[in-house]
Amino acid sequence: MKLFYVAVVAVFLVTCSTPKPEEKEDLGEDKSSKALEKDSLSFFLSHYEKFFATNFNVSECPGAAVVIVKDSAVIYKKGFGVKEIHTQDSVDINTVFRIASLSKGVTAVLAGNLVDHDELQWNERVKKSVKGFNLKDREQADRLRVYHLLSHTTGLYKYTYTKLIQRGWSIDRIVNSFRRKGVVAKEGVDYEYQNAMFSVIEKVMEHKTNTPFQILLKERIFNPANMFTASSTFSEIKKNKNVALPHSYNHYSKKYKLDKLHENYYNVAAAGGINASISDMGEYLKILLGYRPDIISNESLVDIFNPVICTSNKDTYVNLWDGVTDSYYAMGWRILEYRGRRIVYHGGNVNQYKTQLLIDLDNKIGICVLFNAPNPFNGPVMPTFLNYYDFYLDMKG
């Protein structure tokens, strides 16, 4: 970090000591400023890459991939390690990972697309579209809205029916089973993280568009965004030859071993069943940063990033990040109050894959990191990115 400071200051001093033509003083100053900013950004990327590569190697995690987007451009994209342990088959920028619960954010973007096309409303009643849906508390079931599903505020106990997901039950069968479930809070007043209930949104979307959820993802998100290797089924990841395979970690032997791809959570694809490469995620970050209004309008982006419920008092790891003072859940996204600005974030964990995505809307920068195994390095990846970028902003300012 000290080298970063010295180098940036040196660039500044050289720039200031260079005589500027009298008639083009403003233009020269602008060029100097842009050159300094570019050099500062390069130093930021260089230092973050060193941090990532060093800690990734120490962790011995088999494989990973990183993409960083600034404004509307991909400024960093790279694969690390291997797809399968004990091989030389390197992860590249088109290697597919499971993105786990980052799928929830994609689902929220899709919902925003439907809102833009007047096919869906955030406050639409769930039962209006999903006829087989009910709860023990029928009055509460009648009151549930789309935004309750997407914000985990339906009033059910956390992770309701996760066991049914893991048993491979279809979303239709799970939906019909909710009628036997009681609630622990009134809708809209308590945050309890869900996967099965979140994915009821699939049935709402299908009813409103008369199109299967997987097709909606392809036609409304993946294809127009040029996410060429993204998919949302088990069969599609199984037939792909360029996949970062999952690995588990044995805490006793302190060794990684190859695991099998499994079908869990593809039955609730909206919550955790999307597959994508880091190149796909770079294009997706452009959507989130507001540069693809053809896919989702800025108005709908504001809606899905708008906090619905406070999670500051919940046992959530993001509340431990240095600089985070409050946290919220919006629709498919966590919102963090961080050093005077709001950060949009989500993490994921399924089938041994660990994933994270973060965007700083004020500074128009975003990052996504994908791992094919659990590892202790996963924790500090995003907080360190924020710290490094703050340092860059201080040097630039």
Structure keywords:
disordered N terminus, 12 strands, two-stranded antiparallel sheet, 8-stranded antiparallel beta sheet, 15 helices, single chain, alpha+beta, globular, 397 residues, 40% helix
Q: How would a textbook summarize the main sheet?
A: 8 strands, antiparallel
What is the overall number of helices?
15
Radius of gyration: 22 Å
Helix content: 25-40%
Structural class based on helices, strands and sheet pairing: alpha+beta
For the secondary structure, the number of strands is 12
Shape: globular
Q: How would you write the strand order of the largest sheet?
A: 2-1-12-11-10-9-8-7
The H-and-E topology, N to C, reads as: HHEEEHHHHHHHHHEEHEHHEEEEEEH
N- and C-termini, Cα separation: 17 Å
What is the oligomeric state here? single chain
Which percent range describes the beta-strand content?
15-25%
Catalogue the unreliable spans.
1-27
Mean pLDDT: 91
